[in-house]
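Backbone shapes recur. Consider a single case.
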Amino acid sequence: MAKSVKVTTSWNEDGYVEIESRGHKVISDVRAELGGTDRGLAPGELLIGSLGACQLLVAQLNAKRFDIDIQNLAVELEAESVKNEQDGKSLFPAIKFSIRIESNSPEEKVKAFIEFVENHCPVGATLSSAVQLIQSELIVKRPEYH
């Protein structure tokens, strides 16, 4: 069954963005030299970090099922922003990641487990496929003056 995820983003008068879902908030901003206030991670950093977070959570939720002993687990990610030659838009054509795991489990078992993690991370599956972005509605209101 399809599961809907709803997220609301709102601009703050101080120039940063609040991202909210299920009662949780995250602040996103850009560096001061780009005109932001540097109060939070930039949207691209959040996107890239979401991949690592997803991989870690899939690992955490499935380690016992695979009988994998995890002492420590981290994902380091890096992506280079480039301008698309056709339309001038900035994009990340590739995201490189390194998984570092400390485990007493046999290496072959750990490798199979990490392969499972990579294949079951919804963020990774989304990023590696063509995602269709659909604007479903545009609402324009005049501000209310008191």
